[in-house]
Amino acid sequence: MKLLVTGGAGFIGPHFIRHVLQKYPTYSVVNVDKLTYAGNLENLRDVEADPRYRFVHGDICEAAAVREAARGVDAILNFAAESHVDRSILGADEFLKTDVVGTFTLLEAARELKIPRYVQVSTDEVYGSIDRGAFRESAPPKPTNPYSATKAGADLLVSAYWTTHRLPVLITRSSNNFGPNQYPEKVIPLFITNALEDRPLPLYGDGKNVRDWLYVVDNCAAIDLVLRAGVPGEIYNIGGGTEVENIVLTRQILRLLGKPESLIQRVTDRPGHDRRYALDCHKIRALGWKPGHDFGAALAETVRWYREHEAWWRPIKSGEFKAYYARQYVDRA
Ligand SMILES: NC(=O)c1ccc[n+]([C@@H]2O[C@H](COP(=O)([O-])OP(=O)(O)OC[C@H]3O[C@@H](n4cnc5c(N)ncnc54)[C@H](O)[C@@H]3O)[C@@H](O)[C@H]2O)c1
Question: CA-CA to 158 of 20 to 30 Å: which in 101, 112, 176, 326?
């Protein structure tokens, strides 16, 4: 099987590429990535010499480049996105381009080239917040910030290509991922690396927002299963089944690093901050998936990875990230 993976130089993409190359000796992967601030070829060092892997520096909004890369593949998996909520609040232009227009461009290529499978990697954030219970796949999207709105827009477009064109599409909606190689703007790597630097951990609002954490490796196994066994036109929720309040998560990280709680710095809440995300995962479980990692153990492993890979995150934090961080937190502290 030949796969086109987009956004494969970000956080989840490299884990997925590694997963398929290790698991399936006959698979090959073309990775199209624009290498935005979030793309990093360091994340793929261990696979780049594999003859079954090829990197293409390209933008999913460019139709000709997409068509060229997609020719002859058996499936497209679209991981490429602008993915950070806080950045979408500062400015949403790139989110509209990549998340919506980019998805459209890929769908058109898939339609024209009659590609047998298209997987859209989406998020639980499209459902919006839920106080009690959990969202099923049939719940209508109710996004609350520009990031989740563009992801929801993309999902609707993907579903429309099934209804209108019978393009064999599948959508995965996972909860918050964590693990090695995640860009340190996201809460877990931000808090781990700030704590390692003895810098404040900027905690939004009352710290009681709840997220259902999913170890990235488990998400990749689920996406692989959906690719192989999912029913075209269907959506699959993928949740870790571990709901944790942000304040509890923060204390857990500090404990793992032996750092004091005095590092916690309360900051003004994110506008429109969703209180709680929760997914009903019966559908993906019926396909035979369940999370394979315990949250506490996976968090400890993630902390260990950042502790041992300063050479990966220090250049990021002293580069592009620095200006973003100053704009995001100093203004609001
Ligand atoms: N990280 C999470 O917790 C999470 C949870 C649910 C869903 N998702 C979804 O999973 C996907 C991957 O998330 P991630 O955390 O790895 O994101 P990421 O931000 O770490 O990586 C995104 C990648 O896409 C690339 N990219 C951006 N614009 C592009 C364009 N126009 N053309 C080609 N490549 C482009 C970037 O260079 C980067 O390598 C996204 O679609 C995201 O919405 C993420």
Answer: 176
For residue 73, being part of any structural domain is answered with yes
pLDDT for 11 equals 98
> 223 CA to middle of ligand 1, Å?
14
**Does ligand 1 come within 6 angstroms of the Cβ of 177?**
yes
Domain match, 196 and 76 both: no
37 catalytic per annotation: no
Own/partner pairs, 128-134, CB within 8 angstroms, 24+ separation: 128/274, 129/274, 129/275, 129/276, 129/277, 130/276, 130/277, 130/278, 131/275, 131/276, 133/278, 134/239, 134/278, 134/279, 134/280
**pLDDT, the chain, mean:** 97
> What spacing in Å lies between the alpha carbon of 10 and ligand 1's midpoint?
6
Please tell me if the CB atom of residue 103 comes closer than 6 angstroms to any atom of ligand 1.
Answer: no
53: containing domain = 2-177+213-238
- What percentage of residues in the chain have a pLDDT greater than 90? 95
pLDDT single digits (tens) 87-134:
999 999 999 999 999 999 999 999 999 999 999 999 999 999 999 999
For residues 61-80, give the mean pLDDT: 98
Instruction: Looking at the structure, tell me whether residues 131 and 222 fall in a common domain.
Output: yes
Number of domains into which the chain is organized: 2
Greater pLDDT, 331 or 47: 47
Determine if ligand 1 sits within 6 Å of the CB of residue 12: yes
Question: Among the atoms of ligand 1, which is closest to the Cα of residue 13?
Answer: 16
What is the whole-number distance in angstroms between the Cα of residue 113 and the centre of ligand 1?
Answer: 24
- Ligand 1 pocket member 55 (CB < 6 A): no
What is the rounded radius of gyration, in angstroms, for the C-alpha atoms of the chain? 19
Is the pLDDT at 333 greater than 60? The verdict is no
